[in-house]
Batch of 2 targets.
Target 1
Amino acid sequence: MHIPVMLNEVIESLEIKQNGIYVDLTLGRAGHSKEILNNIKDGKLIGFDKDIIAIEESRSRLQKINNNFILIHSDFKNFKNELKKYGINKVDGIIADLGVSSPQIDNANRGFSYNKNGFLDMRMDQSQSLKAWNIVNEWNVDELINIFINYADVKMPKKIANAIVKNRPINTTFELVDVIKSSLPAKIVSLKNPAKTVFQAIRIAVNNEFESIDTVLRDSIEFLKKDGILAIITFHSLEDKIVKNFFGDLTKSKINPKIPVQEEKKFIVKTLKPSKNEIEFNKRSRSAKLRILKKIKED
Ligand SMILES: C[S@@+](CC[C@H](N)C(=O)[O-])C[C@H]1O[C@@H](n2cnc3c(N)ncnc32)[C@H](O)[C@@H]1O
């Protein structure tokens, strides 16, 4: 089961208008979308997911509320062009709850989890050809080191990359976990499961996650109406850094501080973390950060 993370905070921060247009870029099991749909009357919800199972399951959940929604099976980096097809050029709110959903992790056959044995897949979109298997078995040492460093801050990346190349073919998640663990000193393995960051790096590479985030941040700003709100939940520091830097650049003063001019603000931002209660109730929320941006001036 997928428990939506920071649901109340997201709904409050979106300041939902009954006739507004809202975009959920990461539908999952419609945890956030259901609540948005409950709060709009004559408005519209548009949901994106590149996992077709998420689209189908969310459709039957949302239909129980009303039909004021459109679901689109696509990478969210295409959201601008997809919305234009429906004549939508501006929206009141956009939410993204990044990463993988619990149903994806819990299904061993999807190959996302280092705790469940399955074929090395890790595709959110099961129609794409690149799988984790291709990265693990076909990429060279330098390419592996590059994703380990840039996508997950993997410790001892060279050792792990060399061990992977040496032990090919590696077909399953458990085989990969064994190779990772046996490539490192026992003391390090006993401190923290090293498979966690390696799996994260491979998953981000398979799904080209960072490129999609970069694109969507830029396009979201253009697509927000005045007083429109962008809310993004991230789950690890590298992902959060992309959002933090982007919001930081937008809110940074462009005027020389020595010049005594009052600069008109275009955006306001804030960051929230899950409550202690939520973390106790839903462990997955532990590392979540919700960054909210409001566009307070017309383009
Ligand atoms: C954390 S889950 C969202 C859960 C959802 N908010 C809920 O409460 O049910 C993330 C979802 O976003 C999807 N996703 C991640 N990156 C995507 C992308 N670039 N384009 C489209 N969907 C994406 C994943 O397939 C997954 O279903």
Target 2
Amino acid sequence: MIGLVDCNNFYVSCERVFQPSLEGRPVGVLSNNDGCVIARSTELKAMGVEMGTPAFRLQPCLQRGEIHLLSSNYELYGDMSARVRMVLEEGVDEVEPYSIDEMFVRLEGLDDAALTRQARSLYDDVRRYTGLPVCVGVGPTHTLAKLANHMAKSSAAYQGVCILTADSDETRYLLRHTPIGDIWGLGRRLAERLALLGLRNAWDLRNADAKTLRRHHSVVLERTILELRGISCIAMQDDEARRRIMVSRSFGRATGEWQHLREAITQHAQHAAEKLRHQRSLACALYVFLKTNRHRHDQPQHTPELVVALPHPTNDSRPIIATARRALARIHRPGYRYMKAGVMLLDLLDTEHHQLSLLDTTDDTEHPRNERLMTTLDTLNRRMGRNTISFGLPTANAPWKLRCGNLSSRYTTRWGELLKVKA
Ligand SMILES: [Mg+2]
């Protein structure tokens, strides 16, 4: 079986660990430069505040003290994420981070009772050792684990842990009540096209003819159908159309050389930016990681990772590459031979939000030019082959100073910012 451990309202929960007075209150976390809302507590969602809402629109509520808005503290979130992974690694053999706040785990060779105990103990342990609330979903496939997690989150009856088997009455009931657009990896547009064929919910899709739908739609859809039936066919690393942007690759041979690593990260960042523009989104932050070969017990191991804010929500390759390189410089240590490097883009917003966040950046006259440049680049690379034009030199004079009006301390990574306790 496969488990999905997903932290509840991750950024807000990280802040609440160190500021318990925020518990139960409407809290939002803002993109860098305090531009717009990128994370919300349940209470803030209930007030109707949408993702991407510009911070200035919330000023009246803020002044009346009805809500709390915090600057994003990516260093804290990245470190808390690594701690969640460490707790999970104590309990299970294989942990595969899917994003900063979601991790898949393998739960093999357990009977029903042991499986329930294991899932419950993951739920308890993460809370106990990190202070973060999570939900655990378990199923025979990634798609069903994702659905189980969604159930654990949305219905209090599960008390944070939901386990689905392939053919139970419960699974059938849930699939019947899950709209196609809510299934992992299937978007609203696909849902509309499938509705024309009379397929409305996950149960309809599960029983549809996978081969025919593959011919008319995609192999992703066929795999999803099989996964809904309990046949596992999505690999942990597979993120085709999975609504995340992650580019990583294992090297042909391990290398510790700075120049090689820098080139790899540059290329990954560039490809990630292309994907971002293709789906018309902007990213607020990125996550960079390196891995040594864990099977080489004779070599020293190092698997560093870092989450860093981008200067503003963007899909421009240049700041994305420059930020990724800067992150690499901070995590790279000489003396290790790395086997893999990757870049993941975080906190994706629709391009339309950019119009609003532009109001408070200084380079708005540059914006249309930058957009034309990126479009030209993508067109050329599409026509003439990938990497026809690519970035060799980092951009200088990036406006690197961020405005962070209400930034919390980096409690877990800086000695000078430890939590202070009064007696
Ligand atoms: Mg989450």
